[in-house]
Amino acid sequence: MDEKKSYPFHELVFKKEWSYTTGAVMLAILSLALVTVTNQAWGVTGPLAVWGGKVLEFVGINADSWKGFNGSIARYDFFTNVPSITDVGIVFGALLATLLAAQFKIKKIKSRKNVYAAIVGGLLMGFGARLSAGCNIGAFFSGLPAFSLHGWVFWIAIFGGAAVGSKLLTKYFM
Amino acid sequence: MAEKTLDCYGEACPIPLVKAQKELEGMAVGDVLIVSIDHSCAMKNLPEWARSVGYNVEIEEVAEGEWDVIIEKSK
User: Fold this and answer.
1) H or E stretch including A26?
2) Is B26 within 8 Å of B32 (Cβ atoms)?
């Protein structure tokens, strides 16, 4: 093995995983900053639904007339839509973090089962997020500090869902 | 003293942890299990669990974004 220089600051900040406490404090500070600057709580899945609607419009389906969209596809503007910007930010931020830690890797798809699981899981997550008008960020993470009851309801439901989900996971995916 | 390798490349959390727990159950005291992972969160929960039950753990970064978690069933 060749001699390696040590960079303690880089090691601590970019390489070593942060503790849950550090992560929680950072999330709190950044989400507070987002609310202060944009007057909007952090959300993720709203624009994803509109992007899906845009695809439907593109193939000739008038999704904008549906009750769920109700003209929001036509009104949508990427650069003035805060969650759209933060969504793109999440992807670039994650890429930056993994590059700074020198942990970037394109992962191999291991089995066909994983592909089906990813597709079915993604559809269920998207469906659930829109039915509950938000995901674990918009409905839960942003709901609790706003003292909104729906955040607590979401919390209880997510515990139940996670308990059933992990039982299914160990039963069928191991 | 047997040594076993568990290939968990491409598997997301918590699958590497559950697989390692299952594998270690059937191993004898003194055996070594090497879990190959490429999901960084498994690098946290797998050693955390193994240390909490009293096993010896070592982590080796084998390539960019790839790690071997070496667990000795020490008791």
Assistant:
1) helix A20-38
2) no
Alpha-carbon span A142 to A160, nearest angstrom: 20
Q: Which of A111, A170, A172 to mutate to test the interface with B (most CBs of B within 10 A)?
A: A170
Going from N- to C-terminal start, the domains of chain A cover 1-105, 107-174
Residue identified by tokens 């500090």 is A145
Question: Has the ipTM of the complex gone over 0.85?
Answer: no
Contact B35, B9 (CB under 8 A): no
A72 vs A53: CA distance, rounded Å: 9
The residues spanned by each domain of chain B are 3-72
Q: Do B40 and A103 form a contact (C-beta atoms < 8 A)?
A: yes
CATH topology of domain B3-72: Translation Initiation Factor IF3 (3.30.110)
The confidence score (pLDDT) of residue A3 equals: 63
How many Å apart are CA A42 and CA A57, to the nearest integer? 27
B37 CB burial (10 A radius; 0-12, 13-18, 19+): buried
Per-residue model confidence as pLDDT tens digits over A89-106: 999 999 999 999 999 998
Q: Is B13 a catalytic residue?
A: yes
Q: Which residue has the tokens 């930010």?
A: A89
- Closest B-chain CA to A172: B15
Amino acid at A122: G
pTM: 0.82
Nearest to A139 by CA among A123, A157, A154: A154
Residue A112 contacts B, CB cutoff 8 Å: no
Give the whole-angstrom CA distance, residue A117 versus residue A173. 9
d(CA B42, CA A153): 30
